[in-house]
């Protein structure tokens, strides 16, 4: 990407200044390094997450559309949301209003009560990861890496929302976060549970269900000898991090798996300090894991044996 | 305009047309058109009674032109042309109006509109037929030799049938040996015959047949001509081995130090050397050098094969050979390619070591394969204690291929049987349906049901190594909904076999284009008629047989090969064929010699006659596409049977109700005819 700055309307979401404040601070620094300009939408409101839509769809959609109409007042057509739930809600409602004229009419009726209007198709809703991967590009990111994360084994965890219901990436096996982490110098493990649910708000409704879902993810990351899990959704980070002690208690496990945001790792690789990126504010401390970052590139995962194992059958080549 | 006597026949086609179009009203309306002497409607015009109607009217009413309003000319134009010819009328004075596909079938809900459209079409046909001129077909000689492209089981059979009938055949195969995929298999269902045992005698027979010229490691580069007269250019790639001197002793490949993964014959499960013979029973027996992995060709050293060859047969300087052959007919039997299961990441093929594709497993159970027939895991040593077989990988799937690959259910049962025979493993077969449709197939399934395999009906969601429950550690877990009991199941196994689907060859579209035949979006070659003519194509003289036409098993491929051969033999025995005289003709008196048409012709059928300074169409090569007719700036090229006059007349006929007189239903003869 050239020197020109990329400009976006920014919808932070409720958690950005609370439970995911580390995400928020790391985003600021990453944007600075990459030349991304985020203009926070004036007077945005909560996106309603998953609860409101289940309770009463039309007011929920209108609530979300209010943000779209406020975003449309900025001078850009790109709207970026760093939280998967916010992204999905905004993206979904944008799509529904475009597809269903009846809904469009009703929602705009509701918006009119607040003196607002939204014409579907005005905003192009993006997730932060997509903006970095598509608009900035892997090469531009790699160029700004000054402190590669050599030797750090990272389990990329996408969560269930970002690639569903449809996406240009394979919904069950996306690879863009993997590739991004690889460009930062980290060793990325092929994490089978990368799009499995973290339990979401089930922590409030049925703990056993939620903790079991979390346990699976933590167990698998542990089994694959990941040093930490990297994620892109505040809910996923909160669940896997803050509730980890509860998971340990319920199942008698002894996980100590730090969970960081991908922008925190990007910031570290760009040379920012842990403090600036909110590292240290997580419940399960990442300091031990981060100490594993070495100066030298890691040894290749599967070193080709000097003497070909006479018995072993060859694997199919990489796609 | 001369007084022609036109007979019009409107077909009901049972309910196909009459159900939507009011055929009686069309027929009555047509009777009033000028020069229409008789207008009838009939239930089935293509029947012998229907044809006899036409013939009788030609003779008794002295018809000079005939219009049949019915189905597509693709279907029955030849039928009615022959009827006209039998009654003494030139077959090219016949016109067909398609009121089935073009009116009835596309407007099933608006009968009035369909009827009006049919009337317009018939009016157009009536005007056009009066502008047509009698034409005589062009007689082409059928050259005796036949080209068969593809040396798999289908191609081998085509070659043998034709060769045994006493005619010469060229068999072109792109790999160094004939045999195709069947040579890779271990056992064939339902008899569990050893595949190589039943194939190799045929391979030997065709390789040594006096009437067969086998060109292996060769590819067709260019095809020109038309039925009975094809000129084909073939590139015989250099093996770098002089086959006149080579005895096939094997000294060279036993000495070759360069080893690579054999991705073709061993399906990636084994190794071969740079100079290699694809498999022990290869026909021909000569090795070939893979220059990409040969140390001499890459770095300039080694030459071990040359040093040790007892007959001095290694020839590093050998060049490709180009030959041009003249054949009368071509049969394409280019086969299939296996679906690449790496496209489905959920099944873990290519990431999880012990997930195998069906072809990999065939090589594994084959006694001359990389494990000498032992069923083992990817480490080459451990016997699995549990094996999962997954159906429909890449088939019956909107995301990959919607078609069913026809053979995988039977092959899965075969694998289940072989695993049970060779190991003590538990076998789990995950199916959606059990498609065992041909002779003895259901009985084979029945036999399998008693061998102890666990059959689970469900489409597998995921194959993963992420253990969740006790007993899953270190295993591959198959996650599936068992639809017969309505529960999700996680079944830990040691090994997974994916029944990957059959796809067309990856360059099928290029091959179709090379030969001038049609190809579906997926890549299967298009047959002339899916039910009644699966081995002919829309291009006369080019036939298809085997899996290149659609996924199928060995007996069906063999049968199609014989069918294609029979069709070719019929043409050869007839010796000549009538070619439709629908081609372009240049009026040399008026041609200015600008030569614009020369380069536009897609069939290179136009030559420039220097002495006269005019262009001339070679009627043998012209396919009547009309490009030159449209391009000629002086409009001196006539498209026979599609003259400007006839086309303008047809347009005027179709627009009968847009006349300046405000749409009177009866067309008046006083209207001026469009200038030629």
Specify the helix fraction band of chain B.
25-40%
Instruction: Give the CATH level 1 class of the largest domain in chain B.
Output: Alpha Beta
Pair of chains with the largest interface and how many residues each contributes: A-B, 21 and 30 residues
Count of extended strands of chain A = 8
Tell me the count of domains of chain B: 5
Radius of gyration of chain A: 21 Å
Give the CATH topology of the largest domain in chain B: FAD/NAD(P)-binding domain
Largest sheet of chain B: 5 strands, parallel
CATH class descriptor of the largest domain in chain A: Alpha Beta
Derived structural class of chain A: alpha/beta
Brief digest:
Chain A has 319 residues and is α/β, with parallel strands linked by helices. Chain A contains 14 helices and 8 strands.
What does this structure look like?
The complex is a heterodimer of chains A (319) and B (676). Chain A contains 14 helices and eight strands. Chain A is of the alpha/beta class and 319 residues long. Chain A has two domains: 124 residues, Glutathione S-transferase Yfyf (Class Pi), Chain A, domain 2 (Up-down Bundle), CATH 1.20.1050.140; 146 residues, Rossmann fold. A four-stranded parallel sheet of chain A has the order 2-1-3-4, sandwiched between helices. The longest helix of chain A is centred in the last third of the chain and has 17 residues. Chain A starts with 5 loop residues before the first strand and ends in a 29-residue tail after the last helix. The mean pLDDT of chain A is 92. Chain B is α/β, with parallel strands linked by helices. Chain B contains 18 helices and 34 strands. A five-stranded parallel sheet of chain B has the order 10-7-6-18-29, with helices on one face. Chain B has a five-stranded parallel sheet with strand order 20-27-21-22-23. The longest helix of chain B has 21 residues. Chain B is globular. At the A-B interface, helix 10 of A face loops of B.
